[in-house]
Amino acid sequence: MPKIKTRRAAAKRFQLTGSGKFKRRRQNLRHILTKKAAGRKMRLSQATLVDIANEKAVRRMLPNG
């Protein structure tokens, strides 16, 4: 039986926390930032957790955590 491979694109985007959930970065903070408020940009810079609806898919892409 071959080894289970990790999806490298997902490994670069998600990180497993100690409690078993996945951490991710928020979108909309790459360009066109001048029209976005400072508070909005500060909120977008904080990491958040993967939604429950998507957690199964992320877990399948990262079988080794």
TrEMBL record:
Coiled coil: none annotated. GO terms for cellular component: large ribosomal subunit. InterPro entries: Ribosomal_bL35, Ribosomal_bL35-like, Ribosomal_bL35_CS, Ribosomal_bL35_sf. One of its GO terms (molecular function) is structural constituent of ribosome. GO terms for biological process: translation. SUPFAM superfamilies: L35p-like. Keywords: Ribonucleoprotein, Ribosomal protein. Pfam families: Ribosomal_L35p (PF01632). It comes from the Bacteria. NCBIfam families: rpmI_bact. Belongs to the bacterial ribosomal protein bL35 family. PANTHER family: 54S RIBOSOMAL PROTEIN BL35M, LARGE RIBOSOMAL SUBUNIT PROTEIN BL35M. This is Large ribosomal subunit protein bL35. It comes from Candidatus Desulfovibrio trichonymphae.
